[in-house]
Prior knowledge:
Elements: H1 2-16, H2 52-55, H3 57-83, H4 96-119, H5 121-152, H6 169-186, H7 191-203, H8 208-231, H9 236-257
Amino acid sequence: MQAASQQESQAAIKQFSVPSGGPGFVEPFPAAPFSSGKTALTSTHPAPAPARRRRHACLIATATQLVGECAQAAAAVYDPISQAPPDQEEVPVSLWPTHTLLHTGPGRLEAARAQDDTRWPQARDREQHACQASFERRCALIEAETVLLDAAFGFEDSTPDGPAQVPSPPLMAAAGVTDAGLEILEAVDEPDRLFELLEQIRQDGYAPEEVLDDALATVVADACLTLREATGQQDPSRTAEHCLSAARALAQIVTLACIDTGPEPT
């Protein structure tokens, strides 16, 4: 009975189907082996941008781990001192955790950023496109302003040796991003001021992501340099203090990486 039913169904399909390629023909999608027979639908729309805390999840996790390791490196100095008798002048401490951080920390941070880019290629490309478009707009604006100022005031007599050397538009545009990033760092612990700055940055023609990423790169460099300074100290207590300073910079990395900028204007 089952075979006869299948034959009748196939005959009905042949009777009402249109030859392949003919008007109204829709080629059926075969079900994948061991599937439920349902066909997955794909969208041509780009995936929505992830929240920054997801976009930079590997960097956040690595920076958080390094915060704890900086604290442990400082404790390797402070704990023996706290347990030593008050009249003991020289206390043996371990600086090995600090040296380990110096040699592994920067590479781990760089690897985490690369892993985040690999995990979110569409977000990476979107950010790069937005930053490039913002940079080109600022270069064009600076160049236009320079031409207007030169026509209005001129630079011929600005120095005894001849015309003044005016920075190129790309250099001035890059410097603007750095200045905006430094303003973000100054306001990173003041949420209200921080979001006001982000809105002002967007109105000034910057892409918030590029400013936040520039500030993030500054803090990463600061943390790595602080660790390097820690290993060069003669006093172990100073070494521990630098480890804790590096921990504060690493905590700022987490803060900056978690700041969401909202949807970009179109």
